[in-house]
Design brief:
It contains 13 helices and 20 strands. With about 425 residues, it is α+β, with helices and mostly antiparallel strands. A hairpin with an 8-residue loop joins strand 10 and strand 11. The longest helix has 14 residues. The two termini are about 30 Å apart.
């Protein structure tokens, strides 16, 4: 990768810690990077490493337009947050800079009620939902079979998600989900009690829909009164061939109907009786950082592509259909270390992890001195470190997992172990191609 955007000015919308990945990559590509949101500098990690920090809210379109014109911005990008996407589209339209999607597309892909309806329309398997007005009990409630899963229609990070075993629990969970939801919409789904999940990844280029990979999303219910959270990903999934044959054609029709042209997307699926049931979609970069695996294993980087698009309006100069192959030639790994609520006193072992054979990168989501509050339990903010890697065989992949687990130590100031249990070898059985 050269410094092809030397002298160009990139504005990143949102300064969360994970957006530091975008800042670093854009700087490597030669860009002068500005980051904006309304948070103070100490609460906006990406601003702290950017070339320039701005303090304009991404929802203030007039102020954003003024900032972009005054700073002579050449490209705009956002990262990992659904709620910013519609504003990203509006801002780009105002100032005439490339945006990989439209407001309408982003709204459909961030509203679970809308994209589930779209899945049903095009025969893409998805989890059944109940039509529930939780404030007014009707006869339709008699058809509900518990347990059910309640979640906001437009939230991410597992916020406001709860498993409910009866009406009383469902009503309370709906009230909380409504509070978390920006639109005030709540979804009640049939609870699929499956320990198996997969995530499917796509890249789009000029209307071409390119399947870029499928990984097993290993989840674990390793704490009381909490939903299962991801502890690892492994690639490629053994379900990929069946998905390509039986599901991919309908997904392509569905996405084509929206007029999607460029960008990237992930679809998270529960696996029930061998069928992949879509339950979450993101038309954006993924917090799981799998593009680091794709860069090492496949030779292409969706993050680089989105930065390229921000400046040029093109995902790449070459035809990506000739570059991207979802059938990975080696195995990939992505370990998500989960921590209990508490204050981090000491983190050790990250350097040893980085020195482990096959490890690509280790990305901290939390640092020493930071506190995860009790209300963070059951949410993706329990992830404190992601470790991405590659391995030539299944056995080597497990050895890498095991080595990485043995390296890391995260303790409280009092010396308490804050790490939760992770992947077990049996979790990989039958899941890898």
């Amino acid at each position: 990768m050269g410094r092809e955007f030397e002298g160009k000015r990139l504005l990143i919308l949102g300064g969360s810690r994970i957006s530091c990945q975008v800042v670093k990559k854009a700087q490597e590509m030669g860009a002068y990077v500005l980051v904006t949101d309304w948070y103070a500098l100490e609460k906006s990690p990406a601003k702290q490493i950017a070339d320039e920090a701005c303090f304009v809210s991404t929802t203030d379109l007039d102020a954003m337009e003024k900032l972009i014109r005054e700073k002579k911005i050449d490209g705009i990008i956002t990262g990992f947050t659904d709620s910013v996407l519609p504003y990203y589209a509006d801002i780009c339209e105002r100032v005439g800079l490339p945006c990989y999607g439209t407001r309408e597309q982003f709204e459909k892909m961030t509203d679970k009620t809308q994209y589930k309806a779209l899945c049903r329309q095009f025969g893409v398997p998805t989890i059944d939902s109940y039509d529930v007005d939780f404030r007014n009990r009707t006869e339709s409630w008699d058809s509900i079979r518990y347990p059910v899963l309640v979640k906001p229609a437009d939230s991410s990070g597992a916020r406001g998600v709860a498993i409910c075993d009866n009406e009383e629990e469902m009503i309370a969970a709906c009230e909380e989900a409504e509070r978390v939801s920006e639109s005030g919409k709540v979804l009640v789904e049939r609870f699929v009690d499956s320990c198996k999940e997969v995530t499917v990844f796509y890249v789009f280029q000029d209307g071409n829909i390119i399947l870029s990979g499928m990984g097993n999303r290993h989840v674990k219910k390793n704490q009381e009164d909490s939903i299962a959270l991801p502890v690892a990903y492994s690639y490629p999934s053994a379900l990929l061939p069946d998905y390509q044959k039986n599901v991919l054609p309908n997904v392509e029709k569905m996405l084509s109907s929206l007029g999607i042209k460029n960008g990237m997307m992930f679809m998270q699926c529960m696996v029930e009786d061998g069928e992949c049931l879509v339950y979450d979609i993101g038309y954006r970069l993924t917090g799981s950082l799998e593009y680091l695996n794709m860069k090492r294993i496949g030779g292409y980087d969706p993050l680089e592509m989105l930065i390229h698009f921000a400046f040029t309006g093109k995902m790449a100069d070459e035809d990506l259909r000739n570059v991207i192959n979802p059938n990975w030639k080696v195995y990939g790994s992505n370990v998500s270390f989960l921590m209990k609520p508490g204050t981090i006193g000491k983190i050790t072992g990250v350097e040893d992890i980085l020195a482990t054979e096959g490890v690509i990168d280790a990305v901290l989501a939390r640092h020493e001195g930071e506190t995860l509050p009790p209300e963070g339990k059951g949410q993706l903010r329990q992830i404190m470190l992601r470790v991405l890697g590659e391995a030539p065989t299944k056995e080597a992949l497990w050895n890498q997992f095991e080595t990485v687990y043995n390296c890391l130590s995260v303790t409280s100031p009092e010396g308490e172990n804050l790490l939760l249990p992770g992947l077990e070898k049996s979790d990989l059985e039958g899941m890898l191609d």
